[in-house]
């Protein structure tokens, strides 16, 4: 994704440095504590997914598949709240593509409907179908894929040939293996993979059920290990925490960069406005499971809880402490009220999308051209996110932080380019 200076904060104010009610070090410590809790919760829920996947593979059934799907959905709740740690923290941004890259050319992994098409100039491996092929040529080299392992997925297949759509690992590869393609377009319904795609013997549908199970197992195990690695970076002594704490001003800038970039270019632009402009049901974050409404909601919640310095864990306990909100309130109470109000407005807009989807109006239906109700719901979220980014910009100035470039999106900055 390109970076554009949509919001360029002015340099440090020429006034005297404001007196903060809290120490920057305390704000950074709480921010790191929340990161550690979020990633620990992500590990816990991924391990529960791992258990459900193991049960599905051991004894395939419709019930076992539904249990694995439910575990996948639950695993997304804490993880999506971590995305605000991207952009400002290089260790997270460099790693994130392994676990949450999208959209993907799912034909790389497994069988797809005939309407999907075939290899293209953009991606020669769009229908490689690793599940069905224990041997294939990739980037001019013969690959022995008789055994599907985490190493094969991570080191050979993921982003093969430098093509970002060749997503072989992470949440969305697992999502596809559990749900299958969503062939409903703008109509109701998510992916509908039969449980028999994991059955043994003559009951197997889709072919290669043993290899499909191996791929699901390998990708789930890899997700758990990747999340465990990131969780370790945020505990006391971890590399991410150490980097954050070594320069307090840079650390505060990292928090604001994550908030602004996720709000503006990533979520408002690439994940919401772009899909609406293209009216494309494939341009939704959790497209196989029809879970995009939750992805958007928990991304927004992650931004809000970083500003407020609080996070509710999956066990109901909370992590809280010194926050950006405290710093801003000590400098400009009206600005803090504005920022909190904008965050609340955005969450209400994202909550309306979530409520509508849960009532049966799925996100891919909202994306349909001419659906005024769907457009209004999505644009409510987009406008809230853009508006709160303007307030984040004012927070940057009020705290005397150096200029920050937030992530941009053509869908917001240069809409004509989207159709070129």
Structure, described:
- The chain has 420 residues and is mainly α.
- It has 14 helices and six strands.
- It has helices at 24-58, 62-80, 90-100, 150-157, 171-179, 209-234, 239-245, 248-278, 292-308, 324-331, 333-358, 363-366, 372-398, 410-413, and strands spanning 3-8, 135-138, 141-144, 310-312, 318-320, 405-407.
- The strands form three sheets. It has a two-stranded antiparallel ribbon with strand order 1-6. A two-stranded antiparallel ribbon has the order 2-3. It has a two-stranded antiparallel sheet with strand order 4-5.
- A hairpin with a 2-residue loop joins strand 2 (135-138) and strand 3 (141-144).
- The longest helix has 35 residues, at 24-58.
Strand segment tally: 6
- Reading the helices and strands in chain order gives EHHHEEHHHHHHEEHHHHEH
Residue windows where pLDDT falls under 50 for at least 5 positions: 1-17
Mean pLDDT rating: 92
Radius of gyration: 22 Å
End-to-end separation in angstroms reads: 16 Å
Descriptive key words:
mainly alpha; 55% helix; globular; 14 helices; disordered N terminus; two-stranded antiparallel sheet; 420 residues
Could you give a quick summary of the protein structure above?
With 420 residues, this protein is mainly alpha-helical.
Write the topology of this structure.
Elements: E1 3-8, H1 24-58, H2 62-80, H3 90-100, E2 135-138, E3 141-144, H4 150-157, H5 171-179, H6 209-234, H7 239-245, H8 248-278, H9 292-308, E4 310-312, E5 318-320, H10 324-331, H11 333-358, H12 363-366, H13 372-398, E6 405-407, H14 410-413
Antiparallel strand pairs: 1-6, 2-3, 4-5
Helix pairs in contact: 1-2, 1-6, 1-7, 1-8, 2-5, 2-9, 3-6, 5-6, 8-9, 8-13, 9-11, 10-11, 11-13
């Amino acid at each position: 994704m390109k970076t554009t200076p949509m919001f360029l904060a002015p340099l440090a104010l020429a006034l005297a440095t404001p007196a903060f009610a809290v120490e920057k070090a305390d704000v950074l410590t709480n921010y790191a504590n929340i990161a550690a809790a979020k990633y620990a919760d992500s590990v816990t829920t991924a391990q529960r997914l791992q258990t459900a996947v193991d049960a599905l593979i051991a004894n395939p059934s419709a019930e076992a598949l539904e249990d694995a799907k439910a575990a996948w959905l639950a695993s997304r709740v804490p993880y999506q709240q971590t995305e605000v740690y991207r952009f400002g923290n290089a260790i997270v941004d460099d790693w994130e593509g392994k676990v949450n890259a999208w959209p993907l050319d799912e034909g790389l992994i497994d069988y797809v409907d005939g309407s999907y098409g075939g290899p293209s100039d953009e991606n020669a491996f769009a229908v490689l179908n690793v599940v069905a092929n224990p041997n294939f040529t990739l980037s001019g080299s013969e690959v022995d894929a008789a055994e599907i392992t985490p190493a094969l997925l991570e080191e050979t297949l993921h982003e093969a040939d430098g093509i970002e759509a060749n997503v072989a690992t992470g949440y969305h590869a697992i999502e596809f293996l559990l749900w299958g393609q969503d062939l409903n377009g703008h109509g109701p319904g998510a992916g509908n993979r039969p449980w028999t795609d994991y059955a043994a013997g003559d009951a197997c549908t889709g072919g290669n059920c043993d290899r499909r199970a191996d791929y699901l197992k390998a990708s789930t195990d890899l997700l758990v290990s990747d999340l465990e690695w990131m969780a370790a970076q945020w505990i006391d002594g971890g590399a991410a925490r150490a980097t954050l704490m070594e320069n307090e001003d840079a650390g505060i800038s990292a928090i604001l960069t994550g908030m602004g970039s996720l709000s503006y270019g990533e979520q408002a632009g690439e994940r919401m406005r772009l899909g609406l402009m293209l009216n494309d049901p494939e341009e939704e974050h959790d497209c196989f499971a029809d879970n995009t409404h939750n992805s958007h909601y928990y991304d927004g919640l992650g931004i809000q809880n970083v500003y407020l310095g609080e996070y509710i864990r999956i066990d109901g306990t909370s992590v809280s402490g010194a926050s950006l909100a405290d710093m801003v309130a000590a400098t400009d109470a009206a600005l803090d009220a504005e920022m909190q109000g904008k965050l609340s407005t955005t969450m209400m807009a994202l909550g309306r999308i979530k409520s509508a989807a849960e009532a049966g109006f799925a996100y891919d239906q909202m994306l349909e051209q001419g659906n005024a109700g769907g457009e209004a719901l999505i644009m409510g979220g987009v406008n809230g996110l853009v508006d709160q980014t303007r307030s984040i910009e004012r927070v940057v100035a009020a705290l005397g932080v150096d200029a920050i470039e937030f992530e941009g999106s053509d869908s917001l900055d240069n809409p004509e380019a989207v159709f070129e």
